[in-house]
Structures are given as structure tokens and as C-alpha cells.
Amino acid sequence: MGTTERREREKQRRREDILNTARVLFFDKGFRDTTIDDIARASELARGTIYLYFDNKEEIYATILEEGLDILQNMIMADHNPNEDPLTNILSGHDAFMRFHDEYPQYYNVLILDKLQIADVLPAPLKERLDDKMRIMVDWIASVLQEGVQGGFFRPIQVRETAYLLMGMSMGFAQMLDRCCTAADVFAEREQSRQALHAFIANGLIDRRER
User: Fold this and answer.
1) Residue 209 above 90 pLDDT?
2) pLDDT for 41-51, tens place per residue?
3) What's the CA gap between 141 and 168, in Å, rounded?
4) Domain range annotation of the chain
């Protein structure tokens, strides 16, 4: 291994160490209550060393947000089955989001909850970077919807707008479960709530006109 390659590997390893440390702190304390000094201290690095790898705390946080978006996108796409009808694939996407909520709760909190709280402090280039990731997911959902419309399975709809609405419904459903399903009577049965939402989505998408 040459000197240049060794240095590049060391830089990458140091960057990953910073990210790993920051991830733990952000998951535990949140964005606003974590400082660059906290990250430097926990990484056993000088504050200035952090800035050799990241411009600011926001860039570190955006990188972790991107990790969460990549996990979510991969889970949704992995559940897509080209042999199934478009509705089954759309509903599978919702179920994949809920698995993301269950299996990666810390990423879920960072992505869904904290991101809303820090949108006003992220620099424009970082917001655009994250929005690009979100657009990729929306475009993919829209392509499944378009397949359903073109095949006559779904009624005519605005596919991109509907894709955003479906994502919003999944987020809202997850938050409802977090808040309500700990209470005894209201939406206490998660599976019943899931089936109700699936039926609601199906009723809104399926073309029931006589052909």
C-alpha cells in the first residue's frame, strides 16, 4: 500500500470515527443540544480537527439524515415485487415504512421528528442535498402509481402529488401509533389500524368505473 493510499484510508477512517461519535450524541441528545465541542471531546479530537472533515455541525447532521433516508429507501424498494399489482406494491411500501419506524427508531426520530425542527437552521445546500434524496423516493413511488394508472388499475390521479400524500400518511400513521396506541381504547389494535389505513388507500386509488 502506497503512502497516498494509506493517508486516504486514514482520513476516511477518521471521518467515520467522527460520524460514529456524532451519531451516538445526536441520537441521545438531539441536534440542538449537541455541539461541535461535544463531538470533539467524545471523539478525543481537537475541535479544529472536526472542521478538517466537516464544515459545521449541520453537515455532520445532514450526513446522518442521509443515512436514514438511504435505509428507508432501500427498505421500500426491496419490498417491491414486479410480479405483484401496483396496489400491493404501494401498500408494501407503507408496511416497509412502518418496519423502518420499528427497526430503526433512532433514525426515524432523527429523520422524521428532528428534521422538522431543524429545517430552519440547515444551510440551503444541505437542505437541497436532503431534498434530492427525498425526491428520488417520491419519484419511485410516483412511478408505481403511474404504472397503476396506465394499466387502468388506479383511477386518473396526479401521481407526484399523491406520492407525497402517501408518504405523509405513513408518517402521520406512525406518529399516531406512537401517541395513541399506548392508550387503552383508541386505536389500541395496531393491526386493525393498519388494515383500516390500507383500505383507505385502496379506496382512494382503485378505479371502480365500469370498463
Assistant:
1) no
2) 999 999 999 99
3) 12
4) 1-54, 57-205
Q: Measured between alpha carbons, how far is 9 from 193 in angstroms, rounded to an integer?
A: 49
Read off the pTM. 0.84
Long-range Cβ contact pairs of 159-164 (< 8 A, separation 24 or more): 162/205, 163/138, 163/139, 164/138
Out of 2.40.128.90, 1.10.10.60, 3.10.50.40, 1.10.3660.10, the CATH code matching 1-54 is 1.10.10.60
Dist. CA 158–CA 95, nearest whole Å = 22
Q: How many Cα atoms are found within 13 Å in the side-chain-facing hemisphere of 145? A: 24
Q: What CA–CA distance (Å, rounded) separates 119 from 60?
A: 14
Fold classification of 57-205 (topology level):
Tetracycline Repressor; domain 2 (1.10.357)
Place of cell 406518529: 175
pLDDT tens track for 108-151: 887 776 665 666 777 788 788 888 888 999 999 999 999 999 99
**Residue range 63-120, pLDDT digits in tens:** 998 899 999 999 999 999 999 999 999 999 999 999 999 999 988 887 776 665 666 7
